[in-house]
Amino acid sequence: MQQYRMALVTGATSGIGAAFAEALPRETGLLLTGRDRAALDALAMKLTGEGRTVETHAADLAVEADRVELIGRAEALGVDLLINNAGLGVFGPVARNALDREMEMVAVNVTAVVHLTRALLPGMAARTQSEGGRAGLIIVSSVAAFTPVPLLATYAATKTFELSFGEALADEMKDTSVDVLVLCPGATRTKFFDRAGMAEMPGRAELPGPVARKALRALGRERVLVSQPPARAALLLATARRRLMVAGAGRVMRRIARREGG
What we know:
Blueprint: E1 6-10, H1 15-23, E2 29-34, H2 37-48, E3 54-58, H3 64-77, E4 81-84, H4 99-131, E5 135-140, H5 153-172, E6 178-184, H6 192-196, H7 208-218, E7 224-226, H8 229-261
Parallel strand pairs: 1-2, 1-4, 2-3, 4-5, 5-6, 6-7
């Protein structure tokens, strides 16, 4: 596993986010963010007791001002690993779901991911390039990214965005010091299903810890990781085809960019 100096983990108070914080080596400092300040403080106390350097920053990523403050804190700490894990889901027909909840999903799952990534990526690349090291970016998407999902329509669409955004970024950053991974978990034993308003967890669910550890091992080796073995087998061919398509699209767009520049 690549060693990082400081990691920013969003949605760190529980589930896969907390599992990332726990799975990273003690040598990696942590900047943990989430909405629940008490939960953040409890996790920080636990991890600090294990000999880690832990900073916390309570923030609502649906709010632009909160994102700006978090970005400033991350830049000051010299973050070289960004884990965009925070995500929201709402179960039910779009026409019946509360409009503010639908818009909040888009703000957290799409707008915040783009905002944090664009704001922090240049500094991460410049610092590690000058130091001869490597930076990392993990975007937590979902197996729902690969198909429309009725009753989770907006959620699945935001996860499709994250997958497409991350794959394109991986190609754009391939000649830099930044490794990019899109993590696509299947059903995972987190609070997501309760918060989304779903009565039960679908299918066989993984534990958050193994999902986070698999992602950290894959960073720098793969661009897309489907964590659940049955889903991984089923989506492997589709993922390989997508990578070829991304590479081809990248070559075409770079030729266009050269012509425009010339």
